[in-house]
Amino acid sequence: MSEISASTVMKLRKMSGQGMMDCKKALAESNGDFEKAIDLLRKKGLSTLSKRAERETSEGLVVCRTASNGRSAVLASLCCETDFVAKSDDFVASSEKLLDYAEKCAADKGAESILETEIDGKKFQDVLTETVSKTGEKMQIGDFQRFSLGGCGLIGTYVHFNGKVGTMVLIETSDDKVAGAANIRQAAADIAMHITATKPLALDRDGIDAATIEREKGIFAEQVKNKPPEIVEKIVEGKIGKFFAENCLLEQPFVKDDSKSVGELVSEAAREAGGKAAIKEFVRFEVG
């Protein structure tokens, strides 16, 4: 049989609430037949599928926590079926526990790694199972990421007031004095908020997949195909430049002051603080 795709394994994991390895084994045993794989999980007692299983876990909360020393931060999302449950005390308490496990997790990302993480002898999978039994809704970890500083710098975080979207951004600085400056800290917070609003695809041009760029170029060329080739080339070049400006964080106009880019904002704040700074990575999670 052909190789089982990661997307198929993930789909089964979301449907069953079980581990990636269990889902992959079930798909292998069923020769890739999705329905047979579900039956295998049920027969093995690994799945809690019910009449709710086909429902989407499109509600939930994005939660974030920064370590007391500011050297690391975690961002995660916990998903459920309804907004009613997402606002319940049991679900909110579980989302806070998720942060405890995220800080403890051996890996820096990946929902599966948190499920197997233990605190006081209890895995987060057990915490999730207990919450499901209380609320009666299917639940799962949506995403998880941890940022840690290896040198001088800071981590900006932002979670929107509705709890549905959140962001972390890691900024490296030339020294601790710059990292501790009020203006660079404000810039980090503002950029995290900026990311939640603008949904950048990547930090810079190198971060955008080559296939995506070629696809965009093809679309732009098709739009002006009746023009002379040399004109088409110039128009496509201009449009792809605009595409980068709209989708690369460093090139995006800053939402609070569109006279400067996000990259320029960071550099300016660092100069004012007497040094240099650069955004190294960011992550944005959203439920719904």
Textual characterization of the structure:
- The protein has 288 residues and is of the alpha+beta class.
- It folds into three domains: 6-43, Helicase, Ruva Protein, domain 3; 56-148, Tetrahydropterin Synthase, Chain A (2-Layer Sandwich), CATH 3.30.479.20; 150-208 and 248-286, 2-Layer Sandwich (Tetrahydropterin Synthase, Chain A).
- The chain is 47% helix and 22% strand.
- The protein has twelve helices and ten strands.
- It has helices spanning 6-16, 20-29, 34-43, 83-86, 89-104, 111-115, 124-135, 176-180, 182-198, 210-223, 229-247, 262-272; strands at residues 59-66, 72-80, 118-119, 122-123, 140-148, 153-159, 165-173, 253-254, 257-261, 277-286.
- It has a three-stranded antiparallel beta sheet. A three-stranded antiparallel beta sheet has the order 6-7-10. A two-stranded antiparallel ribbon has the order 3-4.
- Strand 8 (253-254) and strand 9 form a beta hairpin.
- Helix 2 (20-29) crosses helix 3, helix 5 runs antiparallel to helix 7 and helix 9 runs antiparallel to helix 12 (262-272).
- The protein is globular, with a radius of gyration of 22 Å.
